[in-house]
Hints:
Helix content is about 85%, strand content about 0%. With about 70 residues, the protein is mostly helical. It is elongated.
Amino acid sequence: MHCTQHNEIGKFKNTFALDIYACIEMSKQSYFDIMMMPYKRFLDYLKWKSDLEEEKQKKFEEQSNSM
Length: 67
């Protein structure tokens, strides 16, 4: 295995682990429940939840600025 491939695998593992913990915090689900999710659904959920949080933040800022 080339060194760059090894580095990419390591980056993926680290990113995946952080995504799992982010999903646990955002969804209030257990580690086991998240590990049982299909990978595609896991990624879709993270994207959806991130987008939702961004929208909430924008609306909050808009309301704060209009006061």
